[in-house]
Specification:
By secondary structure, this protein is an alpha+beta fold. The protein has 3 helices and 10 strands. It starts with a helix and ends with a strand.
Amino acid sequence: NIKKRVVYFANEYKKADTEYGWGCQDPLRAIRIDCSGLVVRCYTYALQGSDYTLLQNDMNSEYLYKTATISISVSALEPGDLVFMGDKNSKTVNHVGIFTKKVGNKIYFIDSTSTTNPNGVSERYYESSNSIIKGYGEMRLNRK
């Protein structure tokens, strides 16, 4: 399952103590990656050997939200889907994470951010009612 492989690779980045780097999309075992770079890399790794490719190999969080995913409800979330986030008083998406699980009302995801201590790739959560969460998406894929 591609989504399960995406979560596997996101965990590999987390275990590698990957640091946050704006605009970075370094390969696994490298030093820096940003939130959308993490998503693109994990999907790229997960799609190897499959019949699918990403729409593009370089996508920011807003493009992922508006173009590269199909909007889904919180009840439809599966590990490997995407959680889109932004500032509390804004509708703009400026951050993305890879959904891992839902426990009660908590939405867990793996992301890369400069706002945690230490910064970099980690698993975090928000309550599903938190206005930071702007939506959820399932990645659109091209058939080879």
